[in-house]
Amino acid sequence: MSDAPKYKRVLLKLSGEGLMGGQEFGFEPEAMERIAKEVKAVCDMGVEVCLVIGAGNIFRGLKGVAAGLERSSADYMGMLATVMNAIGVQSVLEKLDVTTRVLSAIPMTTVCEPYIRRRAERHMEKGRVVIFAAGTGNPYFTTDTAAALRAAEMNCDALLKGTQVDGVYSADPKEVADAERYDTLSYKDVLTRDLKVMDASAISLCRENSIPIIVFSIHSTGAFADVMTGKGKSTIIREGDG
Q1: For the whole model, what pTM was predicted?
Q2: Which secondary structure element, helix H or strand E, spans residue 155, and what is its range?
Q3: Which class is domain 9-237?
């Protein structure tokens, strides 16, 4: 099997929890550096990479609602937390000599650039990693939906979701020992079986734009680069499979 990358431009969706490492909250420097090295390895293959990072390590909007916050306010708080994560990952990437730009859907020009689609495309064409922050800029939408939206706007060849496990299972494999693991699925299968991969809006958006979704473990060293060459363990979601 060739080691040449199968994709020219990809979006990597990471959960905020992926930055916590062994902690219960916030950032673990070692976890952030390991993820940054995974991104650098793929950039060194000549692949154009952009990222969307969640905020679960800092703040979750729905938990804020459960605690009594108004939904829009809670969602905006979550969006601001994604900006913190983006700036943190940018700092670690640039220590590895990976030129990175943070573009926020909520303008805050003191700390990052506002999201402008053509500007983002230009950064990627120049080989810079682009981190999209603040979700879609609107409440009631998840960072999964933001990832699908940006992948479509950037004409990405694939959307990769780095998770805690090595693919999509019929149930949480940490809780159900005999959960079935899938190598391939169709968008329809994910929706009809209510598999907890991404929310329905994100799946539908990828389906409408024919963007394959590849689910893999971000905790496996070299997994991101392996997926780029068709190796390693992952689940591919696209039209017609399953």
Answers
A1: 0.94
A2: none
A3: alpha beta
